[in-house]
Amino acid sequence: MDYRVIEIKSTHYQDPSAGHLSFVEAEHDLPFPIRRMYWIYGAEKGTHRGFHAHTLNWQLLFCPFGSIDLILDDGETRETVTLDSPSKGLILTPGLWREMIWNQKDSILCVAASEYYDPDEYIRDYDAFLAFRNSIKNHKQE
Ligand code: TYD
Fold this sequence. Notes:
Layout: E1 3-7, E2 9-12, E3 20-23, E4 36-40, E5 48-54, E6 59-65, E7 68-73, E8 78-83, E9 88-92, E10 97-102, E11 108-113, E12 122-123, H1 126-141
Antiparallel strand pairs: 1-9, 2-3, 4-11, 5-10, 5-12, 6-9, 6-11, 7-8, 7-10
The structure holds thymidine-5'-diphosphate (TYD).
């Protein structure tokens, strides 16, 4: 499936109680420029969100606090990636259906996206998503 799990660069103080620092640089660490960032916070354990695909956006998802399952679907298979460390990143290409489940209350989901917000770039209907995937597949076979 067209996603990649990355280890986000992190530095560690000699005294671990002073915390850690993680960082990403657009285009150096990511295969896209960052035009937008957003984050989801304040969600209860068991929250189930997402239920959409993007036609244009490349994204980096990471969870700086807590644990969130990302369920990814390319129209043929479903895979789950658990974001449970501030140094774990998930790069998603356009065209993947995603759902997120909060494993822990107040987990934070951060997203860096390649495009500005555009509601027309979302697919929110699963049957429309399958039709979109089929149209890509047929286009590639031509
Ligand atoms: P939405 O993408 O629908 O989130 P979810 O599918 O997880 O519920 O976004 C919720 C609202 O936030 C919607 O009214 C649009 C707005 N929004 C922006 O204005 N800019 C953004 O970058 C995002 C992601 C959402």
